[in-house]
Specification:
193 residues; coiled coil; Tail fiber protein S; signal; 4-stranded antiparallel beta sheet; 2 domains
């Protein structure tokens, strides 16, 4: 601003000198020479120019003052925003480290526990799959003469599929049975096994 103030003072002094010279000269004075008239006209133009320059400088000075105020306001607002962002960034960093230090180990522990449970469930499923019955069928027919004794002694795993009475009395003579079989893990086995 010092340069602007000096410039305004300099133009003011120059303007005063021009006005003073112009006031001492009478342009309509017939005794003035042609060069004096031209010089007087030049001084008038210079005075007008200096007045316009002074007005422009005053306008620029006002604009600069307004611009400086706006820049100052923007600096303050920017500093507040940076401070706020720094606080938020610090809080986020703290939260991330807190989660890393507390929640992450807990999650890792739970994952380890779940992995063990999954392994146990997989083992149980494999065991169940190996023991699962996927099909059932009857084996070949076996015959026994009932009239000779207790026939099959009611063994588990057999189904009586046939009873014959050849002599047509009131007692059966023979019985046919079939073994009940199951398929486990791709192999046929006795139902009781």
């Amino acid at each position: 601003m010092k340069l602007t103030t000096r410039t305004v003072v300099l133009f003011g002094l120059l303007n005063s000198c021009v006005v003073g010279l112009y006031a001492t000269q009478n342009v309509t004075d017939p005794s003035m020479k042609q060069g004096d008239v031209e010089f007087s006209n030049l001084l008038v133009l210079l005075t007008q120019f200096l007045t316009e320059v002074r007005a422009d400088i005053q306008g620029l000075k006002g604009s600069l003052t307004s611009l400086e105020a706006e820049l100052s306001r923007l600096r303050i607002e920017t500093a507040k925003n940076i401070s706020s962002l720094t606080e938020k960034s610090d809080q986020l960093t703290t939260d991330v480290y807190s989660l890393r230090d507390t929640a992450l180990p807990a999650i890792n522990g739970r994952i380890g526990g779940l992995e063990q449970q999954v392994a146990g469930v997989s083992q149980t499923l494999n065991s169940l799959k190996a023991a699962a019955i996927t099909d059932v069928k009857f084996g070949p027919v076996e015959y026994s003469a009932i009239w000779k004794g207790p026939a099959f002694n009611d063994q588990v795993g057999f189904v009586i599929t046939q009873v014959d009475n050849f002599n047509r009395d009131e007692y059966p003579d023979t019985a046919g049975r079939r073994k009940l079989m199951k398929m486990v893990d791709g192999n046929w086995r006795d139902i009781g096994a």
